[in-house]
Amino acid sequence: MEFSSKPLRTLPLIIALCLAILSGCASSPDPSVDETALTLNEAHKAYNAKEYKRVFQLLFPLAAAGNDKAQYALGYLFYHGMGVEKNERQAMHWVQQAAAQGNRKAIQALTPVQ
């Protein structure tokens, strides 16, 4: 199964969109939402600074906890070998996890190019 590279190039846009959505939850009484938003924001800053190992360190706990956006982003990092050793098997695992939760970009990435 091959990835469509077009959706994978949109990671910065996805992270920015996630941050915009989650920033509306900043007044939420659930502290985990605030922490998730802060972590995604920090990961976005690290990505822009090309600190890919830091991006991985920030997003892995979120992905392991089931955050679909972090799962998709980890798939992207593994697929392109950014901050981690390139590993298509791990990329597929994380993108499939995100897709199983309905993440559109992950679903598109798993859709064969025709």
State the main characteristics.
114 residues; mainly alpha; Serine Threonine Protein Phosphatase 5, Tetratricopeptide repeat; 7 helices; 0% strand
Protein architecture, described:
The chain has 114 residues and is mainly α. It has a single domain (5-110), classed as Tetratricopeptide repeat domain (Serine Threonine Protein Phosphatase 5, Tetratricopeptide repeat), CATH 1.25.40.10. 71% of the residues lie in helices and 0% in strands. Helix 3 runs antiparallel to helix 4 (52-64). It is globular, with a radius of gyration of 13 Å. The two termini are 12 Å apart. The mean pLDDT is 84.
Question: What's the total number of strands?
Answer: 0
Q: Which structural class is indicated by helix and strand composition?
A: mainly alpha
Helix content: over 70%
Q: Give start-end ranges of low-pLDDT stretches.
A: none
**SSE order, as H and E?**
HHHHHHH
- Rounded mean pLDDT score: 84
Main sheet specs: none
The CATH architecture can be given as Alpha Horseshoe
Q: CATH superfamily, called what?
A: Tetratricopeptide repeat domain
In what range is the share of β-strand residues? under 5%
